[in-house]
Please model this.
Amino acid sequence: MNTRIITVSREVGSGGRTIGQRVAERLGIPCYDRELVAKIARESGLAESFIKENGEYAESAHAFLFNWSLGTGLESGVLPISDQLYLIQHNIIQELAEKESCVIVGRCADWILRERADCLNTFFHAEMRFRMDRLLRAYGEKPENPEKFLHDRDAKRKTYYRHYTGRQWGVAQNYHLTADTSVLGIDLCVELVLEAARAAGSAGQ
Amino acid sequence: MNTRIITVSREVGSGGRTIGQRVAERLGIPCYDRELVAKIARESGLAESFIKENGEYAESAHAFLFNWSLGTGLESGVLPISDQLYLIQHNIIQELAEKESCVIVGRCADWILRERADCLNTFFHAEMRFRMDRLLRAYGEKPENPEKFLHDRDAKRKTYYRHYTGRQWGVAQNYHLTADTSVLGIDLCVELVLEAARAAGSAGQ
Model:
């Protein structure tokens, strides 16, 4: 394949977003992360804060059932807001991939673009200490219990991903490249993604 | 950390073993794969063919229970042969890691050496077509149904790994680096492992 799209999935605080941004800068292509949220907000009319919280995270599998049980589901023929948001994101991500080379961070993009042969899927994770440190230093967040905060956020991403893709989040076989940023370092991870994007398709045995 | 040990886990036919051998050659250190089987055979008195088949693969979780139920288990105070083999492998892998820098292919080495800070854990996987092709060309094996053969072998590795480590085989977070050899190519994967081994420990943010 000729890599045009790079998707970046990541544990919270692993630095995956930073890697996505740096890779995009090096390639001179856009990185869709916060810009994606703004785009979804414009097209859906939903608040950015709502999209941030509901476009990648799900409280639990029960939350989806609860949405349906409120009568916004099958009976009324209207999709619950979480499903509507997913569909809008889904369509925007497919349109972006069709239109231009780009990096897309999160939001099940690896799954949404799974039929494309020009897409390199990556996943980043890190040790808890590294993530807690980044949470504080890079994101400026100071939750009461950082470890619990990070575990909870991961669990919600996992639930969201499982619900909409049927796949398990973080399984190596779903990605072309995964790396531990706390051991390899963010700088090297940027280089690894660039090398992988260059090599993909010309792979020999 | 200062990487001294590199463990290579892999889907059958992904080329992980080849990557391990090439990395070891480049670093001028031994690669323990078939050599490990021979070493285990010498120390255990078991046949190499038995070790190959039972040192990484398990029919099913029930097979372990069946072993116990044969009376070689708790009642007699003697461990079933599969557990004895695991313990011998476990001890040999720990001794090797203590003694010298090396690459170790398979056999739950990532888990066995999990307490070491000088160990880089990698995992390789590939698309089915690539693996079937390698099965035929690189290993010279011609099973009647190659796809079923590969699925079965993976399933047995997964069962074995789960039984002895309690972890899920192939989850990205268990490894410092994972890659799809069919998309990135074996040559690049060798370079990625070498770069990761060099960088590990000096990781910055």
